[in-house]
Structure formats: C-alpha cells, structure tokens
Amino acid sequence: MLNKKESILDKLFLKIGEIVYIVKTKGISAIEIENNRDDIVNQYLNKSIGLIKEGITFDVIDVELEYKIKKMCIRKNIDDISLKALHIIKLTIYPIANGDCDKILCIANNYVDSYILNKISLDLEA
Predict the structure, then answer these.
(1) How far is the CA of 53 from the CAs of 6, 14, 33, 76, in angstroms?
(2) Contact 124, 20 (CB under 8 A)
(3) Contacts of 62 (CB under 8 A, 6+ apart)
(4) Tens of pLDDT along 3-34?
(5) Which residue among 42, 78, 82, 105 has its CA within the 20 to 30 Å range from the CA of 67?
(6) Residue 6: its pLDDT value, please?
(7) Do 107 and 20 contact (CB within 8 A), yes or no?
(8) Shortest CA distance to 99 belongs to which of 27, 13, 10?
(9) CA–CA gap between residue 116 and residue 73 (Å, rounded)
(10) What is the pTM assigned to this prediction?
C-alpha cells in the first residue's frame, strides 16, 4: 500500500510498471481498464490503453492523446503535476504497449526516487 508521501508520479509509475508486467506476461488484451471518473490521470491512462487494445496506430494514438490533453486543460483546472503525469503517459505509451521495461525504468529514473524505482524494477522482474 502506498504511503501518503508518494506523489501522483510515484503512483503513476507503479501503475505503469504493473501494466508493463501484464503486457510482458499475458499480452495487452489482458489489461483491464478501470473506470475511475474522478481521477484525470487514470482516465487518460485508461484512454491510452483502450486505444492500444483497439489496434489504433501509434501516430493516431499520439494525435488523440495530444487532443485529449488540450481538451482536458480547457475544461478542467489541472495542476502542474497532473499535467506532467498526462505527458508522461503520452511519452510512455509505446514502451507500455511493447512491454519495454528498460525504457520505462529509464524514464521513471527522471521522475521518482530510488525506492520507487527499485520497487518498479523488482515488480517488472517478478
């Protein structure tokens, strides 16, 4: 269970780590999309995973995700950390879809502390 000190980005990378592990072991179709309307970061991640599962090409996914970010910024008051999280999802969607653990860890290294990075690494190796 996450402690209160862990940030939105920590939670996001832990979730991405779980998803990448599922993709590596069971395939993209095994990911279950959660319906959490209150959390814009999870909504965006779910939208991203949904597009991959539909077989949409990455060029189109990139456009759709960029559009969704802009639409969310116009309609909702998004704090800086949540906005950064949306861009991280957009950046990591290709490595997520391909189960690229190394790329995820490389990106996570820039945003989370060593404790979270090690936890993600251990989860991906399991």
Answers:
(1) 29, 21, 10, 27
(2) yes
(3) 90
(4) 434 588 999 999 999 999 999 999 988 988 87
(5) 105
(6) 55
(7) no
(8) 27
(9) 28
(10) 0.86
